[in-house]
Write a structure and sequence with these properties.
This protein is of the alpha/beta class. It has 14 helices and 19 strands. The protein folds into three domains: 9-136, Methylthiotransferase, N-terminal domain (Rossmann fold), CATH 3.40.50.12160; 151-377, tm_1862 like domain (pyruvate-formate lyase- activating enzyme, Alpha-Beta Horseshoe), CATH 3.80.30.20; 385-446, OB fold (Dihydrolipoamide Acetyltransferase, E2P), CATH 2.40.50.140.
Length: 448
C-alpha cells in the first residue's frame, strides 16, 4: 500500500492590477519551494489564496464575491483553507475577518514574505491575522508566472507619493520606493533568456522611477540599460505620469527599437479646476503640448489614457472641457471610469459629491465617443502590415489571435488573422496584413 503523502494543492485567484499579480507570483514561488503543489484551478485545490484589490468600490465587491464563493466551497468540505491577501486585506485588516469569519487568514502586504509559515499556522487551526510594515513587502524575487508564458510584468517600484486626493494607494501601499537598476536588469535578463517575448514595465508611477535612490527620475537610464540585453524583444512602459515625461525619456523611447511605441498616460481629467482638486498638476494646454511633442518624435505612437468622470465638484462646464479635450486629442486607447468615493481619502470629504447616476452617465458618454474614435482608427489600419505577437489559436473560428505593439496585454484590442500554415508558434512574432475590422479589433492574414 502506498502511504506517501501527496503535497497539498495551492491556487491563487489574483484580482486587480498587474502590480498585485507580481506580488502574488512571488508568494506562489515561496509556497512552491516549501513543497506545496501550485495548480491553476482553484476549485480543485486544498488551499485558495485570494489576492485582492481594494482600490475602488467595484474591485472590493469583486473581491468579497470571490472570498464568499470559496468560503462556501470550504463549508462543503471541498477545500481546506481560504487565505486573503492583497490590497483589501491590507486596507481593512481585522475588519475582513470580522465580517467574513469563515476565512482562515488575512495577510497584509508587509507579511507576504511570511506566507508559508502563516499558511502552516492556519493549517494548524489558528485564525491568522498578520500585518507587517508596508516597507517589508518584497520588491523582487523568483516568481511563478500566472499569465501566458510569452510575456511578463516587471515591477520597478512600489507604493506612491503623489497623494492624489481620490486615491487610496498611498495608505494601502506606502510611499514610493524603487528597485535598483541592477536588480531589475537581472530579472529582465532572466525572463528574456528563458524565451519571454515581451516585458511590461509597471509601477504606480513608472516615470518617478529612481528618484528616491538615484536623486532624480531615472526611467530613461533604466530603459537604455535594458535595451542592451540581447535577448530582449519587446519592452512596454505603462503608468507614465505626464509631468515627469522628460525630453530625454521621449528621445530614448523614440530611438530604441526594442521599446514599443506605446505610452500609457493616466491624465484623469482636462479641467484645471478638477485637476487641482485631484491634487494633480497640468491642464488641457500642458497636456496638449506634451502629446504634440510625443507625436512629433514618434508619429506612430499609441497613446493610452484613463479619465475619471463625476469627480466632486465637476460642473457641466468641467465635463464639457473633458469631452472637448478627448475629442481633440483622439487617443488611441482610453478608459473612463465614474468617480469612486473612497473612505479615508481627501476627495471623499469634498463637496458637492456628484450623484452616482450622473457619474455613470458622464463616463458612458465619454466611452461612447471614444468607441467611435477607436473604430475609426481601426479602419485606418486596413492595408497596413504589423508585427504581431502570436498569443493563441481559436480552433472553432479557425483564426490565430495576437497583439500588435499598439496593444498592451489584457486591456487593449486584439488582431485575428488567418494562415495556411497551422504550425505557428505562440510567443513568436509574425507579419500580418490587416484586411478588415470587427469593431475595434483588427482582422488580417499572415504575410508570406
Amino acid at each position: 500500500m502506498n502511504n506517501i503523502k501527496k503535497p497539498l494543492k495551492v491556487s491563487m485567484v489574483s484580482l486587480g492590477c498587474s502590480k498585485n499579480q507580481v506580488d502574488g507570483e512571488i508568494m506562489l514561488r515561496s509556497i512552491q519551494e516549501a513543497g506545496y503543489e501550485i495548480i491553476s484551478d482553484a476549485g480543485l485545490s486544498d488551499i485558495v489564496i485570494i489576492n485582492t484589490c481594494g482600490f475602488i468600490q467595484s474591485a472590493k465587491e469583486e473581491a468579497i464575491e470571490n472570498i464568499l464563493e470559496f468560503c462556501t466551497l470550504k463549508e462543503e468540505g471541498r477545500i481546506k483553507l481560504v487565505v486573503i491577501t492583497g490590497c483589501l486585506a491590507e486596507r481593512y485588516r481585522e475588519e475582513v475577518l470580522k465580517e467574513i469569519p469563515e476565512a482562515d487568514a488575512v495577510i497584509g502586504i508587509g507579511s507576504n514574505k511570511d506566507i508559508v509559515s502563516l499558511i502552516e499556522k492556519a493549517l494548524g487551526g489558528e485564525k491568522v491575522l498578520s500585518f507587517g510594515e508596508k516597507e517589508e513587502l518584497p520588491l523582487s524575487g523568483d516568481r511563478v508566472l500566472t499569465n501566458p508564458p510569452h510575456y511578463a510584468y516587471v515591477k520597478i517600484a512600489e507604493g506612491c507619493s503623489n497623494n492624489c486626493t481620490y486615491c487610496a494607494i498611498p495608505m494601502i501601499r506606502g510611499v514610493f520606493r524603487s528597485r535598483t537598476i541592477e536588480d531589475i536588469e537581472k530579472e529582465v535578463r532572466y525572463f528574456t533568456d528563458a524565451g519571454i517575448s515581451e516585458i511590461n514595465i509597471i509601477a504606480q508611477d513608472t516615470t518617478r522611477y529612481g528618484e528616491d535612490i538615484y536623486g532624480k527620475p531615472s526611467l530613461d537610464i533604466l530603459l537604455e540599460r535594458l535595451c542592451k540585453i540581447e535577448s530582449l524583444r519587446w519592452i512596454r512602459v505603462l503608468y507614465a505620469y505626464p509631468e515627469r515625461i522628460t525630453d530625454n525619456l521621449i528621445e530614448v523611447m523614440a530611438r530604441e527599437e526594442k521599446i514599443v511605441k506605446y505610452i500609457d498616460l493616466p491624465l484623469q481629467h482636462a479641467s484645471e479646476g478638477v485637476l487641482r482638486r485631484m491634487n494633480r498638476k497640468g491642464n488641457a494646454e500642458s497636456y496638449k503640448a506634451l502629446i504634440e511633442k510625443i507625436r512629433a518624435k514618434m508619429p506612430e505612437v499609441t497613446l493610452r489614457t484613463t479619465m475619471i468622470a463625476g469627480f466632486p465638484g465637476e460642473s457641466e462646464e468641467d465635463f464639457e472641457i473633458l469631452c472637448k479635450f478627448i475629442k481633440e486629442m483622439k487617443f488611441d486607447r482610453l478608459g473612463c471610469f465614474p468617480y469612486s468615493e473612497e473612505e479615508g481619502t481627501p476627495a471623499a470629504l469634498l463637496k458637492p459629491q456628484i450623484d452616482e447616476e450622473i457619474r455613470e452617465r458622464r463616463a458612458e458618454i465619454v466611452m461612447l465617443e471614444q468607441q467611435t474614435v477607436m473604430e475609426e482608427k481601426a479602419l485606418s489600419s486596413i492595408g497596413k502590415i504589423y508585427k504581431v505577437l502570436l498569443e493563441g489559436y481559436d480552433r472553432y473560428a479557425g483564426v490565430f489571435i495576437g497583439r500588435t505593439e499598439m496593444d498592451a496585454p489584457d486591456i487593449d484590442p486584439k488582431i485575428f488573422f488567418t494562415s495556411e500554415n497551422k504550425n505557428l508558434e505562440i510567443g513568436s512574432f509574425y507579419s500580418v496584413r490587416v484586411t478588415e475590422t470587427e469593431g475595434i479589433d483588427l482582422i488580417g492574414e499572415l504575410c508570406d
